[in-house]
Amino acid sequence: MDHGRPLDHKNPGEVVSLPTGERPSVVEVYSVSARQREQILSGLNLDLMWEYAAMVQYIQHASMLTGPEYVAIIQEELQHAQDEHEHAVILSDLIQYLGGIPTIEVAERLTSLDNEEMLRQDLQAEYNAIKRYLTRIQQLESAGLYDSAQKIRNIVVVEQNHAIELEKALGIRRATSPGPFGSNA
To answer: Which of 21, 61, 145, 157 could be disulfide-bonded to 140 (CB atoms 3.0-4.6 Å)?
Structure first.
């Protein structure tokens, strides 16, 4: 056995000794190409920038929403901000784990003085996040990083719940279909 070379994820039973004093990144252990590694880390840092932005935007929107009909929604917005903070921590840890450096850059934030427009901005941000994360899951799985993909999948579940809550707050109804069990009647 050649000691000190990265473990090939296609040979899971193989045991590899690491040279003293060296710590390869996980992506090296899984034999991910340099191009693939850079795409994954770049994408995760982009996701991190948007999580930072979402957290700030939710906090600002919660403070700007007015009217008695928005009291419960304000609490949801603050909970969403906490969730986005948790996502940012997960992404930062994942980026570091994969051998990268988490960004401190923040993506664009949107605001408005109109309650409904703020909620629409938040909803669009959730739709965009879900789309980005589905791409990230594909990238991670194609690299054999299934544990990392699962962490992103868990984030998607939360983002989808945020989207559902915002759709309800905006009165958006999904088109209904008979589904697998036939008629809805």
So the answer is: 145
Phi-psi region of 14 (alpha: psi -120 to 50; beta: other; left: phi over 0): beta
Q: Which H/E stretch holds residue 61?
A: helix 34-64
For the question of whether the overall pTM of this predicted structure is more than 0.85, the answer is no
Query: Could you tell me how many helices (H) and strands (E) the chain has, helices first?
Result: 5, 0
CATH code: domain 36-171 is 1.20.1260.10
Strand (E) positions, 3-91? none
- For the chain, the domains span 1-31, 36-171
Tokens of 55: 């957290």
**Residues in CB range of 100: below 8 A, 6 or more apart:** 41, 44, 45
Q: Do 58 and 122 form a contact (C-beta atoms < 8 A)?
A: yes
**pLDDT class of 6 with cuts at 50, 70, 90:** very low
- φ/ψ (deg, to 5) at 112: -160, 165
Nearest CA to 170 out of 132, 121, 127 is that of: 121
Sequence letter at residue 126: E
